[in-house]
Amino acid sequence: MAGCVARRALAVGSRWWSRSLTGVRGPRPFCAAGGAGALPPAATTTTRRHLSSRNRPEGKVLETVGVFEMPKQNGKYETGQLFLHSVFGYRGVVLFPWQARLYDRDVASAAPEKTENPAGHGSKEVKGKTHTYYQVLIDARDCPHISQRSQTEAVTFLANHDDSRALYAIPGLDYVSHEDILPYTSTDQVPIQHELFERFLLYDQTKAPPFVARETLRAWQEKNHPWLELSDVHRETTENIRVTVIPFYMGMREAQNSHVYWWRYCIRLENLDSDVVQLRERHWRIFSLSGTLETVRGRGVVGREPVLSKEQPAFQYSSHVSLQASSGHMWGTFRFERPDGSHFDVRIPPFSLESNKDEKTPPSGLHW
């Protein structure tokens, strides 16, 4: 969701890497700490110069992971493309793309013309714009280093039985915006450590990238498409804190002679300024088509009160909501605290909760 920024520091856990991509031409090799628990890679600034981590643990040595390619300004990345996440710093591989509608309320506030407001709440009218996201696998070696900034089990499904609250997750599965992809190549035939990598992808040195989709990936994508599909993205910035929301419909369950509809929503908070702020409270308003309006207040999010700083500007998490109606809306605010103790509210862009009319039974597990 954030673009490539020259000389921006990547902070993962307590370790730091810096990179500079502007004004550099040709292949750029980068490194990661070798051995058990290898660290996320760091870009280099010149053709053969490797950057080491500032606080590299004793005994760790940097090993070459791959060579950077120029990020694509136009077009899509193909299945099998290796990449480094530009914000969270993990290594990953592209499985397949999604074409989403991005409703950016920051753009709407600068545009005078009247357009459609898909959420139905708030004062700004927003027109959606097509934007590419990717379903990706995260390298398991990097998960421990990003778990405090981004959930690595954020993609969840409803279990296919009577317990309407039962969920299961697919570890190391994520959605990544096109501008967050920093592509690279590797000579390693299994460059990403994930239990699904070799089940989904086949090495073929005659292809570019040299990893092609197996039939198991195509079948999995087709069978689970309704529950994986990313269709709408909502974004708004308040006082240099950008909030991005992606809702997903999960399915319907029967409970106590009524229908319960479930959604998950992924939220990313990003500090676009250099001032340190901390999330303290959340305030949600949840409207159901049945006519109910619920207010939810609480400390932090998912049990955390993340600090957003210049070094660690982003935090991403997922949560869930259920309604006894097939559609609704959500909106609200996050309350942040400055170092001097003052507070300010950041708007959560309103978004729709829509169910699938041609709904089938959600998966009970991975479908192959």
From TrEMBL:
- Name its GO BP terms in alphabetical order: DNA repair; error-free translesion synthesis; mitochondrion organization; negative regulation of macroautophagy; positive regulation of mitotic cell cycle
Top-level division of the source organism's lineage: Eukaryota
Q: Which gene carries the instructions for this protein?
A: POLDIP2
Note down the stretches annotated as region Disordered: 35-55
GO MF, one annotated term: DNA binding
- Specify the ApaG domain's residue ranges: 235-360
Record organism: Otolemur garnettii
Under what name is this protein listed? Polymerase delta-interacting protein 2
Please classify the protein's predominant subcellular localization into one broad category: mitochondrion
